[in-house]
Amino acid sequence: MAGLPGEQFLQEQQLCEAQDTLHTMVAAIDAMDAEFQAQPEMLNDPEWVRSAIAHMAQVDDTARDALFHALDSSWEPDVFATFVQFFINPRPAGDEDMGYLQRLDRDHYTLLKRILAESAALGEAGWPAPPVFDAATSYQTFVLARRGLPLDAAWQQSTLIPRLKKLAGQGDLPMAAVAWYTAASPEDLSMQASALAGVDAPWSGLAAQTKRTEALLTALRKAPDAELLPPLTPEPCGVQKFTVEPAPKAGNQTRAGQE
Q: For the region Disordered, what residue ranges are annotated (predicted)?
């Protein structure tokens, strides 16, 4: 935690950089959402389904790229941990306490499940499979669905995962990707990700995703004593400074002292 005046000024600079990163991300995602929501929903139209999945995948990539930006920074542990907390709250008391990425995953999965469960555009496969859909759409759907597994394990175990295994048996999905999807532990996931390194694109991207997540978790474990500062917001910081104050003991307050 910052103590001396020079250390506090450095922390303020880092907080400002972190908040500007969030502002840029949220502004970009809001613009993407506005453009997509201007289209009428056509659940049974293959072109709309493709567009919806591509939109969610683009937003997902934008948010996670911003999160993993922290790995390339030289922020002190308190700033790093506070930045990550904006995206992921490990112990949310309710929907309002969920991190930005947690809410995003929930909202995307809600729409994705409607597509997978109801869209006639997917045909008997119940999946965006060839010849109507290309490998990119199938991959994007696969990644988004996996984000939703912790939210809807019962339906996925009873319905979606058997569907994925059938598609893999038909050659429409890589067997290694399904093994990655159903990995039962972080160790198993890491092992399955290694097996995916030799798979053709876009499926080899699962290995890269796994490595980035592991790197983030490793960085967090290296700073076990990091103190969470008052929550960051997606408001622009620019040349303004933060007054660093102790984190509130209760409630979900925004950062105190932003001028």
A: 227-259
